[in-house]
């Protein structure tokens, strides 16, 4: 009887262990290597990336944040040295993204839920000095260009673009549309908006790159310049548009902000891949969080922690998919 009970006990233990292993989450069989998420040089992207990273940490993944160039990062993603980039903007990154995904080594993991707008922007008070705005053709007038000039660019107008690493083809756009403007690139995202703040307070002339989602379009009264509407042909075919000898004679595209990653993510970390794919956030949420960092002085980590606490049911659903 004792021997029989021991056999039955052993069998029960074996069945229990078997059931336990069969019910173990997929993450138990996934790689313990760190998932490398790229960080760029604007507040919204830092927030998006840290939210995703902290959610994945909650699911038990090892996360590493890596500073990377917005466009040059694709070499690292193709090689598998970098793994996920949480924001690739349709407005500025589509060409680089398409070239990378065409290799089969990088995957578009889907939209973030945010909609991108990036374009030349001016304060409302500048319309008195250039009344043809927001029509782009007003910028061709010498008097209008001079109204936007500074000591370093006069008599040409000054356009303050984003950091060179953001792309955007603004130098090419000025040349293609024969605009009497000089493009000056801000060194950082913070410098771009610090200059806007200073100019707006003094009612000084300024024309600059503004993007949304962001707090600036809500805080300041102004408008985006209305260039000829973007088409793919405008960027690819010189014969398209008003200048038959040049590309980029139109505005920037509008559209999605995408998540992209190394194509090996779904096999190496399938649970993380599912969570990244499920991630979604909207412009209003992101704009509010950027405001807390850039205007209220909170840290990115504090804002992310606040969002995590308020949205646990939501992000928990991402890691259960």
Give a description of the structure:
There is one protein chain. With 321 residues, the protein is of the alpha/beta class. It has helices spanning 2-23, 43-58, 73-79, 90-101, 142-147, 170-176, 189-202, 216-219, 232-236, 265-268, 270-278, 283-294, 300-310, 312-319; strands at residues 35-39, 63-67, 84-89, 106-123, 157-161, 181-185, 208-212, 222-224, 255-262. Strands 3, 4, 7, 8 and 9 form a 5-stranded antiparallel sheet that branches. A two-stranded parallel ribbon has the order 1-2. A two-stranded parallel ribbon has the order 5-6. Helix 2 (43-58) packs across helix 12 (283-294) and helix 2 (43-58) packs across helix 13. The chain is globular.
What's the count of strands?
Answer: 9
Which stretches are low in confidence, meaning pLDDT under 50 for 5 or more residues running? 1-28
Structural class: alpha/beta
Query: For the CA atoms, what is the radius of gyration?
Result: 25 Å
Oligomer: single chain
Basic shape: globular
* Distance between the amino and carboxyl termini: 48 Å
H and E string: HEHEHEHEHEHEHEHEHEHHHHH
Indicate the percent of residues in helices.
40-55%
In a nutshell, what does this entry contain?
The chain has 321 residues and is an alpha/beta fold. It has helices spanning 2-23, 43-58, 73-79, 90-101, 142-147, 170-176, 189-202, 216-219, 232-236, 265-268, 270-278, 283-294, 300-310, 312-319, and strands spanning 35-39, 63-67, 84-89, 106-123, 157-161, 181-185, 208-212, 222-224, 255-262.
């Amino acid at each position: 009887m004792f021997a029989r009970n021991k056999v039955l006990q052993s069998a029960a233990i074996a069945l229990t262990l078997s059931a336990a292993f069969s019910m173990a989450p997929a993450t138990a069989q996934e790689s313990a290597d760190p998932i490398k998420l790229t960080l760029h040089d604007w507040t919204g992207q830092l927030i998006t990336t840290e939210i995703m990273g902290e959610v994945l940490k909650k699911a038990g993944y090892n996360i590493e944040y890596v500073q990377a160039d917005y466009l040059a990062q694709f070499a690292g993603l193709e090689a598998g040295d970098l793994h996920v980039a949480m924001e690739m903007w349709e407005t500025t990154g589509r060409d680089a993204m398409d070239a990378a995904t065409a290799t089969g080594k990088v995957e578009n993991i889907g939209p973030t839920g945010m909609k991108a707008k990036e374009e030349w922007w001016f304060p409302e008070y500048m319309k008195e000095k250039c009344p043809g705005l927001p029509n782009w053709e007003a910028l061709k007038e010498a008097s209008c260009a001079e109204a936007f000039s500074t000591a370093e660019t006069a008599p040409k107008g000054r356009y303050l673009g984003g950091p060179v690493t953001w792309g955007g083809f603004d130098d090419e756009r000025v040349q293609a549309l024969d605009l009497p403007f000089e493009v000056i690139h801000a060194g950082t995202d913070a410098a771009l908006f610090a200059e806007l703040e200073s100019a707006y307070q003094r009612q000084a002339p300024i024309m600059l790159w503004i993007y949304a989602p962001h707090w600036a379009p809500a805080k300041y009264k102004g408008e985006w310049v209305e260039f000829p509407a973007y088409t793919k042909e405008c960027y690819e075919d010189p014969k398209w548009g008003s200048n038959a000898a040049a590309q980029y004679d139109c505005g920037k595209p509008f559209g999605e902000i995408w998540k992209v990653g190394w194509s090996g993510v779904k096999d190496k970390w399938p649970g993380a891949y599912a969570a990244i794919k499920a991630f979604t956030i909207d412009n209003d949420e992101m704009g509010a969080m950027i405001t807390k960092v850039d205007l209220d002085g909170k840290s990115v980590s504090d804002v992310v922690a606040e969002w995590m606490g308020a949205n646990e049911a939501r992000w928990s659903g991402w890691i259960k998919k």
